[in-house]
Amino acid sequence: MTSTFPIKSETAQQVWNIFDRELIHKLKPLPEDERTDIRMEILSHLFESTVNNDNGSDTEEIRLINAISRLGSPEEYLDPLISDILLHQKASKGHPAAVLQSLRDSAKKSLLHGLMTLVLGMGYFWVIMLFIMSVMHIINPDVGIWYYPTGEISLSFSEQPDAMQWQTGWFSLIGIMSSSAAYWGLNKLLSYFISKSKA
User: Are the beta carbons of 84 and 198 closer than 8 angstroms?
Assistant: First the structure.
């Protein structure tokens, strides 16, 4: 660390090392590349703050302690950042609880976020419904998509009079594959939306 951030005083170096160890400990839940990026960004900011506030009368350790104090408690700025990153990673992998939490968080932000949350929420609802119906179709062949001569379409759990069933033999396979692909796509869209909302 001393080569990247040249701390001259031995006491200041000890203060720096204590801060750095605490930083490393707090960032442990994150993947290594995220940990390294965030750690280096915080240490760079701390070093600049220490160097730039040199009025000539304060010692290096006093300037460093003041810079750490201005930065604030690591819990204040790291805990929300870590939880956001972990939530984003889980949501992009399709963890249902993380998806719901991400939708709830984005709905609180603005009208556009609320609209996107509604669209994504409805998307997840229909994808899950199609998946359930596709699995049920294996046991009960009457479950499926029915269409009427008038052009109307119906999702139904039982046989519909005066209607024809769509893809009776292939409905389960098509439904399971398409709902799985749509679920993956919605997760990617949600992940993109979360990252854009942070920018």
Answer: yes
Q: Is 173 within the bounds of a domain?
A: yes
Residues 21 and 107 in one domain: no
Q: pTM value?
A: 0.48
What's the token pair of residue 27? 């960032």
Residue 64 covered by a domain: yes
**Rounded to whole angstroms, how far apart are CA atoms 4 and 41?**
12
Alpha carbon distance 155, 9 (integer Å): 74
For 76, the token pair is: 């204040």
At residue 181, the pLDDT reads 92
Q: Are residues 119 and 187 in the same domain?
A: yes
Residue 126: is its pLDDT beyond 80?
yes
Say yes or no: 36 and 112 in one domain.
Answer: no
CA distances from 34 to 42, 58, 85, 88, 150 (A): 12, 34, 9, 13, 56
Q: What is the pLDDT of residues 61-90, one digit of tens each?
A: 888 888 888 877 777 778 877 877 777 777
Number of domains, the chain = 2
Of the chain, the percentage scoring pLDDT greater than 90 comes to 4
Beta bridge partners of 156: 144
16, 108: one domain = no
